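[job 0412] stage=fold_complex status=start
inputs:
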Amino acid sequence: MSWISDIDWAGVLIQGALIGGLYALFAIGLSLAFGIMRLVNIAHGDLIVLCAYVAMIVVNATGVHPLWSIAVVVPVMFVAGYLMQRSLLNFTLGPSILPPLLVTFGISVIIQNVLLEVFGADTRRLNAGAMETASITLPGDVTVGVFPLVIFSVALLSLGSLQYLLYRTKLGRAFRATSDDAGTAELVGINNRHLYCVAMGIAMAFTALAAVLFSIRTSFDPSSGAINLIFAFEAVIIGGLGSLWGTLVGGIILGVSQSLGGSVVGPLVSDLIGNPVAAQWQILTGHIVFIIVLIVKPDGLFPRIRD
Amino acid sequence: MNESQVSASPFIVERSTRVSQVSAVVATLGLAVLISLPYWGSTGSMRLIAEMAYFLALAQLWNLLAGYAGLVSVGQQVYIGIGGYVLFASADWYNVHPLLAILISGIAAAIISLPMALIVFRLRGAYFAVGTWVVAEIFNLFVAQVPKLGGGSGYSLTPDIVRSVAPDRAVREMLMYWMALALSVAIIAMVYLLLRSRHGLALTAIRDSESASESLGVDTYRTKLMIYIVTALCSGLLGGFIFLQKLRISPESAFSINDWTVVVIFMVVIGGIGTMEGPILGLLIYFAMRELLADYGSWYLILLGVVAVAVMLTAREGLWGLIAKRYDLHPFPVRRRLVRPPAS
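[job 0412] stage=fold_complex status=done
writing structure:
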């Protein structure tokens, strides 16, 4: 087991934590929709993949750097989110959880199979050029990739701006009022149905942002949605429902677990039982940590909303 | 029903209806025809009917979970997979007879479902749904790590084990066909009797309002737990059977959310959730669409998705709900209805 002493622990932990930023970005859309309208969007992962394909179309059509596609994908998905809420999801809201769950479930299957029919099953990836491989060396001889740093910074900025939106603006006050008590909010003149559409638009805008970064970091295909939904969900539950910065902590814990799973747990299991397949341990370790958190702290680390 | 209590009131409690008596006769005749199918039908039709039979059982089980107990699970494939793998392991490692191994599959799934319920029951509503999915993914990834179970690429039953079911291939086909029918009829009958029992009354109350049923003394947690374990048991039996028929298992096929959960949910939602008739109608619609659109790739799934979304938005009781409302048909009377007796 000589490989254990060769592990670059600082590198493994930092890389994992930075990727956690991506999971936090994935989770923003999910927790915004849940926080404001108590809607759990099962199609969230497939919407991320849909955004990635939209970004791919923009890049292929214009030849710009993938990051510039954000300028198109984010507004397009804001409108798409608004319309999806207005034409479909607003009609599912009510005391029963079945309609929103099953409608978003249906949307998920539709998106996944339409993408399959239109783009085929090939895996795709957006090429961001030199940025992908560039790295900087931190004091203590720790090398950190530039792109993971970009992802983490975007996550921090996104959460910061969302915090500002929710707690410092008029719109945010309306969101919080509706979240606390939708009926009373309407009594004081808030148009909930319109507000829900705006909330879903904002959720989709953040999702689009996450999706462009995701499409550069990881290769994707029409079936990649499920695992993205699961990562977003795990980050939300580990962090605690409704807690903005808890989601970031949840994402970091998930990212670090996966990183450790890939470079420590997998090889260790491989050594112990002589199994050559170690790659899957990255995801598996993340899942196991999620289950442990669920057993030990069922409300997550920083719970905010109780329903 | 305690007749002496209700006789004083001008109403009587009615359970079976004329329609349900007629449909019971029709169902018995239909079943007799299906049992005789191997003597006059083709192998292809036997396989299709067997597939329809176990999908109907799966649909009834999911309906029991989601439609009655309010446990909207999208992770039921985990018990199909566990059932399949336990069958392979017990037949291959311990030389258990495959038909006996199916029973072991069900029991194993039930045993595993208890600790799993204790974990996923901590999540509520829609988060419960995603939680069950994560658990299924864990099993999927975990089984792929076990070389003795064929790892990620899966493995096949040896010819010796296959022959131990029945040496002759034609006899084996017949035997498997009848088993599919027997398993499905047993599971559907179990669901029916369960819904007509005291527990069924509790379940219907939970379906209509969880907090109201709790306030009337229904132990919702225990009722849900019981339903979760019973459906795991039945799904395990079906999983064992399905993979004994397929003769080959892999993590991808055993824990496939698309094969074992997505289509089942569509059947139930389109047909009508929260009734026993709905899943039957949904099953017929699903198979009709699949056979008609067989040449168009995954378009049938897209169409099913569109129909399911439309049904949820416009007619939440599903297509059967529309029919039942219009014609007052109840072939599977699990409700207790108050009716005024005809004046005599």
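[job 0412] summary: Strands of chain A lie at 135-138, 142-145.
[job 0412] exit 0
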